[in-house]
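Researcher: Next entry in the queue.
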Amino acid sequence: MPEQYLPVLAQLIIAFGFAAFVLIASVIFGRSAKRTATKDTPYECGMLPIGDGSPRFSVKFYLVAMLFVLFDIEVVLMYPWALQFRDLVTHGPSALASMAGFAGILAIAYLYALKKGALNWKS
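Model: Structure for this entry, 123 residues:
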């Protein structure tokens, strides 16, 4: 039984040996560049990195993002249901009624978000 693991052991030894060889060779043969402040600054798509790295965003961005994810997940649920609708109709009107109830709850949630001003950018 242990002789069956010899190829796996040989592959592990070769893989670790190759990784160690490449790392050691890069240290030995690699050139050390002079470090300057200009070279150590992060590259920002051609723009000079001025200011704070993490600007503050309005809560509106996060609220709209959460609403998008919420309503997007419901579309992901509705799409397979719509594809199987013909098969579901043969079982009776309960499939249509359940999806109508689900869409009704979504409509109420959307109207609630509109009433609360979640999608109003000016406030």
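Model: Residues 2-40 form one domain.
Researcher: Noted, moving on.
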